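Prompt: Have a read of the protein record below and flag anything odd:
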Amino acid sequence: MKFHRKKILSWLKYALSIATPLLLQHAALAACRMEPNAQCQGAMLKNVNWKNADVGAGDFRDANLEGANLEGTRLRGADLRGANLKSARLLRSDLTDATLEKADLSGANLKHASLARSRLIGANMSKSFLDWADLSGAFLDHANLTRSHLVGADLHQANLRDARLDGAFLNYANLKQAKLGGASMQRTRMIDARLSEAEWTDGRVCRAGAVGWCE
């Protein structure tokens, strides 16, 4: 009898260990609505279609938005720390002043997106598409931008210290007064990139009017 009781208790503990995360996930999704100030922390939103939605100032910490369609979506001031945005579609989205520290944006399409003053410290943005995106004043310290596309991107006064830009495409990008101290830039393409008064990888300041490389 004692053996059976232990076996039942053990089974109940196992069942609870499986059910609890599922219940929490369901509760998070139930509170998550497509509206401003959305409360979607930890929500499972993989492949969701929220094109042109307004979820500004929403809480998406640790949410799974892999493959989501967020084209033209307003995420201004949203909290996306630790969120999974792998391969998400974010063309022309508004992420101004958003917090994306440690978020995974690898392979995401952010062409023409607004990320001005956004916090992307430690974010994984490898192989992402940021052509003609506005990253002016953005915080990209320690971000992984390996093999990312930043053609024509506005990185004016952006902080890229200790970022990884190996193999990235920065052709025609605006890097005026950007901070690149300690950044890794092996095989980085920078055709006609504007580097006026930028802080270079070795700490020296590029001359006013420098184009294509720090002089």
Q: What stands out?
A: The helical segments are 2-31.
